[in-house]
Design goal:
By secondary structure, the protein is mostly helical. It has one domain: Tetratricopeptide repeat domain (Serine Threonine Protein Phosphatase 5, Tetratricopeptide repeat, Alpha Horseshoe), CATH 1.25.40. 78% of the residues lie in helices and 0% in strands. It has six helices and no strands. It is globular and about 65 Å long. InterPro entries: TPR-like_helical_dom_sf (IPR011990).
């Protein structure tokens, strides 16, 4: 019985350390992404933010930044994908013990509705999506 207890304890400890390491890597990516943006190296910043989003990073930064980048590039479809992922993460991944989870969830829900409306507005004005109109290809999946 004690052997099983210590094996489980060791496994949980390893997973906690692995989780901490992963979080440190993700935070570094966010800082690097912000620095790359300042340098005008947007495509490189996008790659870093996408990596964090694919790993369900539980902070708002990569979702906000990537959604803003896509919005500025008129890649509204990609912006919507990012914001949908943010809503999913804040509903299902982020701890309810965090005091900001609900306000961030509402922020992303509201921003998602604005992005959808913006895309529809463009389609009504030009008869096509901005991605089709400008020949833009999305990079986030």
């Amino acid at each position: 019985m004690f052997k099983l207890f210590f094996k489980i304890r060791k496994l949980l400890s390893f997973r906690r350390e692995e989780s901490i390491h992963s979080s440190v890597v993700q935070v570094k990516r966010n800082f690097q992404g912000a620095e790359l943006e300042k340098q005008g190296r947007i495509n490189e910043a996008i790659v870093l933010y996408q990596a964090n989003i694919k790993e369900h990073f539980d902070g708002a930064h990569p979702y906000k930044r990537l959604a803003s980048i896509y919005h500025n590039q008129m890649k509204y479809h990609e912006e919507v994908k990012v914001l949908n992922k943010a809503v999913y993460v804040y509903k299902n991944v982020v701890s309810r013990e965090r005091t900001d989870w609900e306000s961030k969830l509402n922020y992303f829900k509201n921003r998602l509705e604005v992005a959808k409306a913006k895309r529809e507005e463009f389609k009504k004005s030009y008869g096509t999506s901005p991605e089709e109109h400008f020949g833009l290809k999305g990079s986030f999946s």
